[in-house]
Amino acid sequence: SHPVRVSAQLHPYGEGRLLLLSRDITALEQADAMRRDFVANVSHEIRTPLTVLAGFVETLQTLPLPDGERLRYLGLMAQQATRMHHLVQDLLTLSRLEGSPLPDMHEWTAVAPLLARCEQEARALSQALHGDTGAVAQQIVFPAAEVLRSAGQLAGSPGELHSALANLINNAVRYTPAGGRIEVQWQPLAGGGARLAVIDSGPGIAPEHLPRITERFYRVDRSRSRDTGGTGLGLAIVKHVLQRHGAQLAISSVLGRGSVFAVEFSPGGVRAQPVLPLL
Ligand code: ADP
Fold it and tell me: Domain Histidine kinase, which positions (predicted)?
């Protein structure tokens, strides 16, 4: 797909002859540039909280602060440590995804408890972000019980699937302001397969950002991402997991109105679950 560039070397080859050795170096150079970018990004992401932490340590060491102030500083330091912890966790998740064999598609996870867990986590996150600010709570809506009862099962790694769906749902909670609405829909598709949509009434994403939104460390608004505990790796993890499971991610968004992150599971990735008769 790209114009081929070659590195060529001339080697003496027998009497009066030269051998031309060539290979395509574009792909190699690209991979190398990406690796360099990634290392630079990771270093930056680690350096920032470290600088903040070191600053607080110095303040505590040099200024005699009243107890209340000291505790406030320690709280802020704990926040930075947590941030670095999340960053390292996400980095490990990504590197595991890259290094491990494809998920076993003979392993099945029931959708209902998976979404129940996501719902619990989303409500806890919403509470943590808005609960004690006195702001109007977010409205969080999950599929009705009867939809979930017939939702069936997903093929693949339960842990990976949870991390992908939870990332999308938690992003909706994190980026939607207080008083907003987050809805998760589950829809079986006509030819088999299913669609899970995470719909929010948040800030939306401008069209020029959409193509890059799943890249590592790509953020539309750096400070908003940080304030809500973002590492900039969430959607990269989501994309990777879904790819490994043969599922597609479709994002549509209207600036100022909200976003829809939709996951389409292929027919092979979903199986119906016999509805147990109520005794
Ligand atoms: P982060 O940790 O920064 O949230 P992600 O990879 O999860 O990293 O998301 C990348 C960027 O995409 C975010 O920084 C944010 O700008 C944007 N984004 C993701 N989800 C949403 C959403 N539901 N609404 C608006 N913007 C979003």
Answer: 41-269
Separation of alpha carbons 58 and 201, rounded Å: 42
Taking alpha carbons only, the member of 91, 93, 62 closest to residue 157 is 93
Give the position, in ligand 1's atom list, of the atom nearest the Cα of 261.
23
Is residue 175 within 6 Å of ligand 1 at its C-beta?
yes
Q: How many degrees, rounded to 5, is the angle at CA 218 between CA 53 and CA 186?
A: 110
Strand partners, 55: none
Ligand 1, atom nearest to 229 Cα: 2
Q: How many residues does the chain have?
A: 279
Determine whether the shortest distance from the Cβ of 97 to ligand 1 is under 6 A: no
What is the average pLDDT across 28-37?
Answer: 88
The ligand 1 atom at the shortest distance from the C-alpha of residue 219 is 14
∠ CA 54-56-61, rounded to 5°:
95
pLDDT of residue 9: 72
As for the ipTM of the complex, it is 0.99
